């Protein structure tokens, strides 16, 4: 693991840098002082994958002085449709090293530190302590909770991003405001991790290649705002974007003082997130119903029930009605789910609901469940085009 030296004092920009960053510098909100802040900033990007690649590209172009890259994976051919720092010749090579090599050629004024290792409980605090801002481009819940907790302990701002098929999310956690107060954390928004069986990753369900570029660019934008101290960062706000419709929504959430009291890292983040050999090898299987079939059943007043397993903030945007139980709460509220009539389970795009159908059918013996193919998004697209979409 490479160690970073002591942080340099603010230094003047060279004539070459003044020319390179001219379009930044002529912005009154940036100027030479802002560009010098960027030059002296240290940003750690966790993951050189779909999100990490655009984050690194734009932070490099912007002139962030030191960029750390953590990734222990190697380039795979399946990465190339979205991880834009890599090409066919890089397949099999270490992502962190390749990213640093490619980016170094793009901006010689930026220092790159490639950490070809897995972020763990044992190394997280030491690694993160050397940086000013942390950008999370990871794709699993144990890493997200680990990064969050380390940032809270170290008092570092965390720029979060996630992608799922056609949907992306961005927020900022643990950001210190003008009054010296720290904003909400990842645990304030997601106190409990979902069951791994309920949230497959992009290796299992796919992702639109351009989506991580869009979300990663927003993460880079938020990072620059933090360093430059301009604009309104997404602290206490979750930006949700649908690449299919280009609909966006911003959901406000508050700080939970109890969830923010983190003084040490958890003993085992995989255990906390319920990661076991069984859940890692889980394959979904379920009965489905289309939105057209559901409309026929509703129009003919069939005796059916609906179960919405989305989060509360999603039901406020749009709803098909029925029983509302967020996905992570289903196991604790099974008694609310009827067994005497057909039950149509739905979510946003149909993946969370599919996992719930699988869980209830195989683990608890429910025989009356159907997953709504495409979720409420398909309903809004094909059946009720006046319904709000997100």
Helix content: 25-40%
- The CATH class assignment of the largest domain is Alpha Beta
User: How many strand elements?
Assistant: 13
Structural class per helix/strand content?
A: alpha/beta
| CATH overall fold name of the largest domain | Rossmann fold
The topology string of helices and strands comes to: HHHEHEHEHEHEEHHHEEHHHEHEHEEHEH
Rg over CA atoms: 22 Å
Spatial strand sequence of the major β-sheet? 3-2-1-4-5-6-7-8
Which regions contain 5 or more consecutive residues with pLDDT less than 50? 5-9, 277-285
Shape call: elongated
Structural description of this entry:
The protein has helices spanning 15-20, 22-25, 31-40, 52-62, 95-106, 124-129, 141-154, 186-189, 202-205, 211-228, 257-260, 269-272, 277-280, 291-299, 312-315, 351-364, 375-382; strands at 42-46, 66-70, 111-115, 133-136, 158-164, 167-173, 237-242, 247-252, 288-289, 305-308, 323-324, 343-346, 369-372. The chain folds into two domains: 41-279, NAD(P)-binding Rossmann-like Domain (Rossmann fold, 3-Layer(aba) Sandwich), CATH 3.40.50; 284-382, Oxidized Rhodanese, domain 1 (3-Layer(aba) Sandwich), CATH 3.40.250.10. The longest helix has 18 residues, at 211-228. It has an eight-stranded mixed beta sheet, with helices on both faces. Helix 4 (52-62) crosses helix 10. Helix 16 (351-364) links the parallel strand 12 and strand 13. It is of the alpha/beta class and 390 residues long. It is elongated. The chain contains 17 helices and 13 strands.
